[in-house]
Write a structure and sequence with these properties.
The structure holds 2 protein chains of 2 kinds.
Chain A lengths: L2 H25 L6 H26 L4 E2 L4 E6 L2 E5 L3 E2 H27 L11 H20 L3 H19 L6 H32 L4 H10 L4 H18 L8 H4 L5 H10 L1 H11 L1 H5 L2 H22 L5 H27 L7 H7 L1 H28 L10 H4 L1 H15 L5 H16 L1 H26 L20 H16 L8 H6 L18 H22 L5 H7 L1 H8 L4 H48 L7 H22 L1
Chain B lengths: L4 H21 L3 H26 L5 H31 L13
Classes of the chains: A mainly alpha, B mainly alpha.
């Protein structure tokens, strides 16, 4: 496994982007699917290479490959190198991104052919869609592979741009265009912190290189307030990208994009980039108690906060989107709590710090598959019914058996039911939360209940009961299963959602991530139940499912009556805690427009314009005064000349 | 008493000062022109006197005087023509009324 084949993982989607942009889009008719095939071929090859990389990294001593760096540019003393960082974290992420991306690209062949609201007839936007999907995949792989914070930042922004372009894919719809802008601007807020952190680190250490920074943080040359602020700055970038509170508002709106885009970008990969970034720079966090505490608290709060909103949404994609935010909160909590646990250890090395990220990354790994599956399922449902509103669905179990069964597998995995993948990673998060902070543990336990409840609410509303919609998406009006090209990827992801957790059944994943520095509390497929925690967590999850069944399946309790009983709470959840209103009306309209922008405008007109205009005015005024001396009276000039001569003569005479 | 360089120079200075006064103080353009001629001639006297008293063998200064007289004649012709034209347009020969381009 050479460096060049790892470079190829990143370059293949870039090539496919360039080919589509420069050759396919101008010369091939828009109904052709060739752009899709090119993308699938490129990403398929990248997946193959990623799996080989994973194998090589597993075999390599220290689970790390050394790839020579390339000098990108030299400006004076500033020398910026481009290099790859291939360790266990990279290898795992490569496989996640390429696998989910490949499944989504295949699925899109079917999905995008169908759904073309408002577009010109015949134009399905295949070329545009696949060009951006390729560019996104390449940028995401760039984030994963880069060994320098600067380069990560470049790709970080590039995935943001792709997200913007793809959320606004149906830009004819104002809601999609607005959602795209919102996503871009809100994440930019976090990125500002990230950029500041990069600069702080560079000023203090003179390097962007991540392995070097990790070493410095562990050795203590980088410590104290600098380290804390740098870590919090990096975390603020992660908060924006991973949609953590208080910058989570963009993710539910991002559902305006095509569903496969939501599955890839807003469920499995880009939003996980924030978690990845924290994991990548984890040694920096490990050196600061404040930073890890912030990560853990924000993560736990986001988990429960987003889950409450997921309870009440009617839009199937939005429920899944809130679930994504909530699950990302889990991952952040896992990282933060593991960081807190490190504080009690006497010895700290880069390996130990990296090992601590295993729990969060394992959840990321499992979540990517089952959440992508849930989104693709939601897309499939939308394909049949023409809506995302669950009130217009119901009874799809019979019409769409494949979608139903795969969705249930995804739901069970999300709820954390043994032995699906979600169970293995979620229980580890619960365990690490229990070890560090009982309050966080309680929050997460409540979230487990809510998670099981809301995802089974979706399942009962969508697939159970009778069909409530007025018409199907088709002219003949009957519901049918999606085409094999869509069902296939869902089946693959469903299989992954079942088996991906087994990697850690005997602690294999933790050992891989941690270079053998950690032991998992998980011990075997059945051995885990020797511990009381999985019993409690499973009981709570099953209680959530049962509650969903009682309300939406069997209808023993009426959902409306509960809604009425807890009216204020329901309104609070349904209106998303009024945060959109708070941001838009208070922060944007009042604080920004009326406060800061108006103040800046005063400074601009007063100080800046005042200086410029003042200079011009003083020149004008002095000129105006001076020209009065130019009377145009020749005799006056003559007098002046005469007096001047007399004066000169007198001076010469007296001086001489 | 013999006539020396000083006497010529005093005459020249007196003529020059009278001319300067006239050029600066008079309003009538023709009078101003006359005053300028007076100043030129004051210079001519000084030049001829210097030439005669300081370098008698050379006629440089006196030749120069001839040139000045010629140029002054040409100048007077042009200036009078200009004044004539201004008078036709402005109905005046007073210099401070020539204010077309004044602010």
């Amino acid at each position: 496994m050479t460096g060049s084949s790892i470079w190829l993982i990143f370059l293949l989607p870039i090539f496919s982007f360039l080919i589509i942009t420069f050759f396919i889009r101008p010369f091939v008719k828009p109904t052709s699917r060739i752009a899709g095939y090119v993308t699938i071929a490129a990403i398929g090859t990248a997946l193959f290479l990623s799996l080989r990389t994973l194998g090589t990294v597993m075999a390599a001593p220290g689970h790390e490959l050394v790839i020579p760096e390339i000098t990108w540019l030299t400006v004076g003393d500033l020398k910026i190198n481009v290099g790859l960082m291939v360790d266990s974290l990279t290898a795992v992420m490569l496989v996640v991104v390429t696998t989910v991306s490949l499944m989504v690209q295949i699925y899109s062949l079917g999905y995008m052919q169908h759904e073309v609201p408002d577009a010109k007839p015949g134009d399905r936007g295949y070329h545009r869609y696949y060009a951006w999907m390729s560019l996104f995949t390449a940028s995401m792989l760039g984030v994963i592979l880069s060994n320098s914070l600067l380069l990560i930042f470049v790709f970080w922004e590039l995935v943001g741009v792709c997200s913007y372009l793809l959320i606004g894919f149906w830009f004819h719809r104002p809601s999609a265009a607005n959602a795209a802008k919102k996503a871009f601007i809100v994440t930019r807020l976090g990125d500002f912190g990230f950029l500041v952190a990069i600069l702080v680190l560079y000023v203090n250490t003179g390097t962007f290189n991540i392995p070097e920074l990790q070493e410095m943080a562990i050795a203590g040359t980088l410590a104290g307030t600098t380290l804390t602020w740098a870590a919090i700055g990096i975390f603020s970038g992660a908060v924006g990208k991973s949609a953590q509170f208080p910058l989570h508002v963009w993710l539910p709106d991002a559902m305006e994009g095509p569903t496969p885009v939501s599955a890839l970008i807003h469920a499995a990969t880009m939003v996980a980039a924030g978690v990845f970034l924290v994991a990548r720079t984890f040694p920096l966090f490990a050196g600061s108690v404040t930073a890890v505490t912030v990560v853990a608290v924000i993560g736990a709060f986001t988990a429960i906060f987003a889950a409450t909103m997921g309870l009440v949404m009617h839009d199937i994609k939005r429920v899944v989107a809130y679930s994504t935010i909530s699950q990302l909160g889990y991952m952040m909590l896992a990282l933060g709590a593991a960081g807190l646990a490190l504080q009690h250890e006497g010895r700290l090395t880069v390996e130990i710090a990296k090992a601590a990220t295993a729990i969060g990354i394992f959840h990321l790994f499992n979540h990517a598959f089952f959440k992508a599956l849930l989104f693709l399922g939601a897309g499939s449902v939308n394909h049949a019914t023409g809506t995302f509103d669950m009130r217009q669905m119901g009874g799809l179990r019979k019409a769409m058996p494949w979608t139903f069964y795969t969705f249930v597998i995804g739901g069970l995995s999300l709820a954390g039911i043994w032995p699906l993948s979600g169970f293995w990673s979620k229980d580890e998060i619960l365990a690490v939360a229990w070890d560090t902070q009982k309050l966080l543990f309680t929050l997460v336990m409540i979230t487990v209940l809510m998670t099981a409840f809301y995802i089974f609410r979706v399942i009962f509303l969508t697939f159970g009961g009778e069909y409530r919609g007025s018409h199907g998406a088709h002219s003949n009006g009957h519901l049918h299963e999606s085409s094999p090209v869509m069902v296939g990827p869902m089946v693959v992801l469903a299989i992954l959602a079942i088996v991906s957790g087994f990697w850690n059944v005997t602690g294999g994943f933790n050992a891989f991530m941690g270079h053998g520095e950690t032991q998992s509390f998980i011990s075997g497929l059945f051995g885990i139940f020797a511990h009381p925690l999985p019993w409690i967590a499973s009981f709570v999850a099953i209680a959530g499912i049962f509650l969903a069944y009682a309300i939406y399946g069997a209808k023993w309790i009426s959902a409306e009556s509960i809604g009425k009983t807890f009216k204020p709470l329901y309104t609070l959840f349904y209106r998303k805690y009024f945060l959109d209103e708070l941001y838009e009306n208070i922060i944007v309209r009042l604080v920004l427009l009326k406060g800061i922008f108006a103040g800046l405008e005063k400074i601009d007109t007063g100080v800046v314009d005042g200086t410029v205009n003042g200079l011009a005015n003083s020149a004008y005024d002095s000129g105006n005064t001076m020209r009065r001396t130019q009377t145009g009276q020749l005799q006056l000039y003559g007098l002046a000349i005469g007096l001047g001569v007399v004066a000169i003569v007198l001076v010469l005479f007296l001086a001489g | 008493m013999s006539i020396g360089l000083e006497h010529y120079l005093v005459l020249s200075t007196a003529l020059f000062s009278i001319g300067l006064y006239g050029a600066l103080a008079k309003k009538n353009a023709v009078v101003i022109l006359m005053s300028i001629e007076l100043m030129l001639n004051a210079v001519n006297i000084a030049m001829a006197a210097f030439s005669n008293y300081i370098v008698p063998v050379l006629l440089t200064g006196q030749v120069f005087v001839i040139f000045i007289i010629v140029v002054a004649a040409a100048e007077a012709a042009i200036a009078l023509a200009i004044i004539m034209n201004i008078y036709r347009n402005r109905e005046t020969t007073e210099a401070d009324k020539f204010d077309l381009m004044k602010w």
